[in-house]
Amino acid sequence: MEYEKLVSSKYIEEFVIGEELHHGCVQITPYRNKEYIKKFKKSFLYGLNSEYQSNLGYNDPEDKSKKEKFNIGYPGLVSQGYIFNVGFGLSVHDISYNAIANLSYKNLTYGEPVYEGDILFGKSKVIGIEVKKDGASNGSVQVKTTITNQNNEMVLEYVRQVLLRTSPGTKINAKSELETQPDTIDINTVKLPKVFVNLNNQSLGKHGKKFEDLKVGELYKGTFEKSISLVDFSWLQISTLNDASVHHTPSSNFIGYGGAIKSTVEGSISEHIPHAYFIGMNSGSHDAPTYPGDIVQNMFASEDADDEKISGSFKIIEKLDHESREDFGIIKIELIGEKTITEASMKAYEKSGFKGVGNIKDGKIRVLTMEMLLAIPKGVAFQ
Description:
Layout: E1 20-27, H1 30-39, H2 45-48, H3 50-55, H4 63-70, H5 80-96, E2 99-110, E3 119-131, E4 138-148, E5 154-165, E6 175-177, E7 219-220, E8 225-227, H6 230-239, H7 258-267, H8 269-272, E9 277-286, E10 295-297, E11 309-321, E12 328-340, H9 343-352, E13 364-377
Helix pairs in contact: 5-7
């Protein structure tokens, strides 16, 4: 079945380097933010508790009007994971509706905090195009996406590279005009937490750690697993306006939205570091497709876990003190997700023509790799 091309969706040959695409907008309601936190088990304390939000120094300047509009006690701080998914979803229809896959992310940084009730707007600039060979039926586009709030303040910015198909029957010639990206974010230019103060030791829970407790080279394992259902995939896509055809088309085996995989595995970080504040991401990639119904276990899977699962881990690569702040330090981590291959998985890969089956090792294949930067409160920030 051929799906009708929508007006603003593009094929690879229609993109032009330098063009700017202006996306839609979406308002972040309290329900969507809190439901996201619950669905993907993100212990985002600042979005659920006004005391923790205050201890981070964040009070919404539009607090009064939002309280009246939404009939809520306070406009909660929005999870950075949800901000990413909204920012990504806003750009899908104009950039990756006809995508085959998202290849990579680079230099993702968060700006001003987002509060429930804020309205987010998106725009993207085409900064590169790559076609591997002459006569190709696909190629990749490189875009820089910027998300702003209703006050035109930047809240999220990142570069991504997307593999797109050509229009039916069209072949294109090889070209490579990609913009070189730095390997790491400049931490001196990113938006840092305002303050970590008067945090409660009890909020660390059983496994929670402060900056001083974390060790370079150490691998942290999770304690729970979660099956991502088609319902949860669909909820996240609908609430963030993500209408990419690859996630809705029967012939694609309903490939799971990568943002849901990222959110679930990323959520495991807060199990061990509940006060983690995401600063940005140096790089990230979806290394293999995942399908609804796969079980996702944050950190590493337990030995007696079910057959079909996605396991995740994060490893501390580097610890950095900030020269002007004593209340927190910065850690660089590698976040990895792996999927256990079952008979059903292999059939799905064969049907879709996935060429990465050679990367299966010990019955697993990597599905997610990300290098991230987080601000972690030090002991002096706790009561």
